[in-house]
């Protein structure tokens, strides 16, 4: 028999032990052990990442949890298999069926769902004609259809209020036709928001963001974690309780499929041509929970206790970040963070996604991981302290303002290199892999037309470099790039001029051979074509 742990004395202790995986029969324990083994395998010296296949496209390429989407989500490729495998491919869609945005929906743990299809991953997509579709992630089959509205409102954006629970659909900013504007007609509605609960997909309500309620200078809105965020042209950001707004101003609840008589219209909720009723009417300005002024409306909340990050609302302060307490707006000790770098691209800062309350500040050659801690002898104030740093490899970089030639002549440079000069190694991407608890960075050096990038894995707790993976394809710093690190997979999506897209997939290979000999059969290059003529190499 194995070693028996001492019995827990109370329920709280028992739950705490379960969350830390002390009981071998608990769900998730084996999975956590497997992820620990995968991390060790991935970071050992003999493990390599090989470019297993590549594709090129004339339309945007998207990636979601092991699936690569092409041709406006009409073609889905599994990136999990050793060889590229088409999960499904639909006929080319018309312009009226074009997909504007998409969200991957995965079944929550626990709970009973009404349909067997609800337990499998699905893709929620929004079309240009205001249709909301739920598709099977494995076959592309349409599982549900909801018509949003037949009005001039154009819904464009999908986002999570609460991930995999509450979804918000936002319209493009409502603008009158030119003829109506010339005639002096005024439009007070700026945006529409439609709110849904998912799995099962059900309608909660739809509301207007009206300038008569929120003001004339509103430029954008967002919903996150039960908070309505309203942004203004002068840099002001205001927060409202979104849940309270829905409860207070809900005129009448409706379910999908209900027959209704609304504003002299008779129809079925979610069916064409009626769509959804605007059943949340905000008639009075709701109380403001919090407001702050920040350059370009840049505003973030996080940390423990709660803090927020802003940039003072003047152009001269661009690149200066203030970290303040949400409780009393007090600036934290050492709360002004500035890289003081001279670069074309600005540095950026955000709260660490690992829920540790730390802060990541990224500059061209330096990544700072910051933490909040109590000021000594003053528990009411917090200070910003450095947890660790990651520094770009610029050992071979020489940028002397004055040089002396072999003949002894003194030559002075008329200008200095920028901190993000392409010829110096520069950080371009920083990400976090939550399942393996690894911090990943992409650093790039470009000499002439040839740019070289490498993806590094760092210990999330201490910042120690554990693994470096060279990306074989050339990296042009003037192009747009996305890099995804998903367990044993690395995926690089590149957007070139004239809407040319490329996707490079790397997979982990454990190579135990010595002296550079490959222990597995050499990779043979093969090519196959999809119905649309797309070429894949692997």
TrEMBL record:
Query: Where along the sequence do coiled-coil regions lie?
Result: none
Q: Which domain of life is it from?
A: Eukaryota
Q: Which residues form the signal peptide?
A: none
> What InterPro entries does UniProt report for this protein, alphabetically?
DCAF17
Biological process annotations from GO: protein ubiquitination
Q: Which GO cellular component terms are attached?
A: Cul4-RING E3 ubiquitin ligase complex
Q: Which Pfam families match?
A: DCAF17
Name of this chain's protein: DCA17 factor
Q: What is the lineage of its organism?
A: Eukaryota, Metazoa, Chordata, Craniata, Vertebrata
UniProt gene name: Dcaf17
């Amino acid at each position: 028999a194995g070693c028996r742990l001492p019995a827990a004395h109370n329920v709280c202790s028992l739950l705490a032990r379960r969350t830390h995986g002390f009981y071998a029969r608990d769900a998730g324990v084996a999975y956590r052990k497997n992820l620990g083994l995968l991390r060790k395998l991935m970071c050992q010296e003999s493990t390599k990442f090989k470019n297993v296949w590549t594709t090129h496209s004339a339309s945007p390429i998207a990636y979601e949890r092991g699936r690569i989407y092409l041709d406006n989500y009409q073609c889905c490729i599994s990136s999990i298999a050793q060889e590229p495998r088409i999960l499904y491919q639909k006929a080319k869609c018309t312009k009226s069926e074009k997909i504007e945005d998409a969200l991957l929906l995965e079944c929550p743990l626990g709970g009973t769902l009404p349909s067997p299809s609800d337990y499998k991953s699905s893709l929620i997509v929004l079309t240009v004609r205001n249709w909301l579709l739920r598709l099977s992630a494995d076959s592309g089959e349409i599982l549900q259809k909801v018509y949003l509205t037949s009005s001039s409102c154009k819904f464009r954006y999908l986002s999570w209020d609460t991930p995999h629970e509450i979804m918000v659909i936002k319209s493009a900013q409502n603008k009158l036709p030119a003829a109506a504007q010339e005639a002096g007609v005024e439009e007070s509605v700026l945006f529409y928001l439609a709110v849904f609960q998912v799995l099962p997909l059900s309608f909660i309500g739809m509301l207007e963001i009206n300038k008569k309620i929120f003001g004339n200078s509103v430029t954008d809105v967002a919903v996150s974690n039960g908070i309505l965020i309203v942004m203004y042209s002068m840099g002001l950001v205001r927060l409202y309780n979104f849940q309270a707004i829905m409860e207070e101003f809900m005129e009448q609840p409706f379910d999908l499929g209900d027959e209704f008589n609304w504003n002299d219209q008779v129809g079925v909720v979610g069916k064409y041509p009626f769509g959804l009723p605007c059943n949340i009417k905000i008639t009075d300005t709701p109380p403001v929970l919090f407001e702050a002024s920040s350059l370009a409306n840049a505003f973030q909340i996080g940390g423990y206790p709660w803090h927020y990050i802003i940039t003072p609302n003047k152009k001269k302060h661009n690149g200066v970040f203030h970290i303040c307490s949400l409780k009393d707006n007090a600036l934290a000790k050492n709360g002004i963070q500035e890289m003081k770098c001279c670069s074309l691209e600005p540095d950026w800062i955000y709260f660490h996604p690992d829920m540790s309350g730390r802060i990541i500040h990224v500059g061209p050659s330096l990544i700072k991981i910051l933490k909040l801690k109590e000021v000594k002898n003053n528990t009411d104030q917090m200070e910003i302290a450095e947890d660790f740093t990651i520094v770009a490899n610029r050992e071979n970089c020489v940028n002397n303002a004055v040089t002396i030639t072999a003949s002894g002549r003194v030559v002075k440079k008329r200008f200095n290199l920028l901190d993000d000069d392409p010829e110096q190694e520069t950080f371009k991407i920083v990400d976090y892999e939550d399942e393996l608890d690894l911090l990943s960075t992409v650093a790039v050096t470009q000499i002439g037309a040839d740019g070289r990038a490498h993806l590094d894995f760092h210990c999330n707790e201490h910042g120690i470099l554990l693994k470096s993976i060279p990306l074989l394809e050339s990296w042009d710093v003037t192009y747009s790039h996305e890099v995804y690190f998903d367990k044993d997979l690395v995926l690089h999506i590149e957007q070139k001029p004239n809407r040319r897209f490329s996707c490079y997939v790397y997979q982990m290979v454990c190579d135990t051979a010595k002296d550079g000999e490959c222990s597995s059969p050499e990779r043979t290059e093969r090519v196959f074509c999809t119905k649309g003529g797309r070429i894949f190499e692997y």
